[in-house]
Design brief:
By secondary structure, the protein is mainly alpha-helical. The chain has a single domain, classed as Four Helix Bundle (Hemerythrin (Met), subunit A). Helices cover 75% and strands 0% of the residues. The termini are far apart. The mean pLDDT is 94.
Length: 138
């Protein structure tokens, strides 16, 4: 890939990341307040779409180590967009922490498109979230 094109693509990616992370942060807060209502499904669709878009964008710039993390978040948000349900607040803590850590990881991407921070905590939190959400899958 041409270096100038990649740099332009990376700039676009970083801008989109900020928007999607903010959408997910706001969405998680809104979901806390609208569990087991029709609004839950609507908000779930929005945050699911943001996670999906981040996954595709990560793939486009070659962030193969970030893509599965986004996929996991997308799957978990997908559960919330398909059905109304009540979730324990602990799960929202995992969603919150996952989105914050993902934002930190994405913000650390350097000019070569490489993540410069350790992803261990992010991976652990996303795995814990997924292990708690498995019981809500239909």
């Amino acid at each position: 890939m041409d270096a100038d094109f990649f740099k332009e693509l990376l700039t676009i990616f970083k801008g989109e990341c900020e928007e999607h992370i903010q959408t997910m942060k706001s969405g998680v807060q809104d979901l806390r307040q609208h569990m087991d209502t029709d609004k839950q499904i609507e908000i779930g669709e929005v945050v699911h779409r943001s996670a999906h878009s981040l996954k595709g964008a990560a793939r486009t710039i070659g962030l193969s180590d970030v893509e599965p993390i986004c996929q996991s978040l997308e799957s978990n948000f997908g559960i919330l967009m398909r059905q109304k349900m009540l979730l324990p607040s602990k799960i929202f803590d995992y969603f919150d922490r996952s989105v914050v850590l993902l934002g930190e990881v994405l913000a650390s991407i350097n000019e070569e498109g490489k993540v410069e921070v350790d992803k261990t905590d992010l991976i652990r939190v996303v795995e814990e979230l997924s292990s708690h959400m498995v019981q809500y899958r239909k």
